[in-house]
Write a structure and sequence with these properties.
Blueprint (H helix, E strand, L loop, with lengths): L14 H28 L2 H8 L2 H21 L5 H25 L2 H24 L7 H22 L2 H31 L6 H30 L4
Helix pairs in contact: 1-4, 1-7, 1-8, 3-4, 4-8, 5-7, 5-8, 6-7, 7-8
């Protein structure tokens, strides 16, 4: 499934397609690993007790996830492509552990339906980001500000437990992550256009960075939609 890179130079006319194909392959692999891990966790009483029996373990996993995202994004130039891909797969696995909570709370049918809707929305917005002639770079600042806003609001609402605020956060989250899907897709496409003559190692690292961005867009869009569409057990 994944694209293998060598240190040889990629032909200019194919570099964009090579990058995008690799981005989506890595993203799909990451989602598959997370899904299998989440399902396996829900069927393991030992893992469930380890992760959810002690809140400290769950929060440590969340911190490790954040550390991996920051580490991959911030140190991508210093990492090798193989190291970056390994860290991405590790992140996908750990995220699967924490996402197992979703399988415990919501019914399987509502999770499946939400996943289908998320896939359709993600596909449509990713296609828009790829094919549109409009410059979406101006979206970045507003989407980032909105992302910071819903993160802060979510933290505050942990203590307030306000259902109305939770609904507003989810609604804004759907808008923000839908926009980020288009924005990130166009950004990755333009990076491919600017990498004419780049070697396989550099393309491999950019592919992992792009896959991480789209993976996060997809998963967060799924979680936000699940708050509307999910039926609790």
């Amino acid at each position: 499934m994944t694209q293998t890179f060598s240190s040889t130079t990629v032909l200019p006319k194919t570099v964009e397609n090579v990058l995008l194909r690799s981005v989506y392959n890595w993203m799909a692999l990451g989602l598959l690993i997370s899904g299998i891990t989440a399902y396996g966790t829900t069927n393991s009483p030992w893992l469930l007790n380890l992760i959810f029996g002690n809140s400290a373990v769950f929060f440590i996993l969340i911190l490790v996830e954040l550390g991996l995202v920051i580490g991959i994004s911030g140190a991508i130039q210093r990492l090798s492509a193989s190291t970056a891909s390994g860290l991405f797969l590790l992140f996908s696995f750990i995220n699967g552990l924490t996402l197992s909570a979703v399988l415990l709370v919501y019914t399987a049918s509502s999770i499946f339906q939400t996943f289908l809707v998320t896939s359709l929305m993600f596909g449509a917005m990713s296609a828009y980001g790829y094919f549109t002639r409009s410059d979406l770079s101006s979206w970045g600042r507003y989407l980032f500000m909105g992302l910071i806003g819903i993160i802060i609001a979510s933290v505050v609402n942990i203590f307030l437990a306000n259902s109305s605020m939770d609904w507003i956060i989810s609604f804004l989250g759907v808008i923000i992550f839908t926009g980020l899907t288009a924005y990130d897709t166009q950004k990755i496409k333009r990076m491919g256009e600017e990498m004419i003559g780049a070697d396989g190692e550099r393309i491999g690292k950019v592919a992992i960075l792009g896959a991480l961005a789209l993976y996060l867009d997809f998963v967060n869009l799924f979680l936000m939609l699940l708050r509307f569409m999910g039926r609790r057990r």
